[in-house]
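Record now logged for everyone:
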Amino acid sequence: MNKILKIITPIFFLVFSSNMALSKENFFDEALKMYQDKKYDDARFMLERNIVFNPKDAKSYLYLAKIYNLEENQRKEEYNLDTALLIEPNNEEVILMLMKIALKNQIIQKLKIFLKHL
């Protein structure tokens, strides 16, 4: 009986862990499909769900940032871009999006200074 239990237990854990790994990938794939179909609320939910299971997935943070960009929520967009950049420092798309935000902020600051002097 003990021998059977010793054999069945590792097999059970192997099957269970492989199912968990596949479900993690499915969350991102589903979210990406929803994003492409412009179902942004559903995509956000699936991306956040993917982050729960895989917190080091830079792609999930990137797509969350894209959704927040569309919703014009700059604070959350920047937060997700910063997180993606911490995970993947060489991600050019993340760097470009952060540069656009910085440029936009700089233009706004210069405009405020200009308007003060009028």
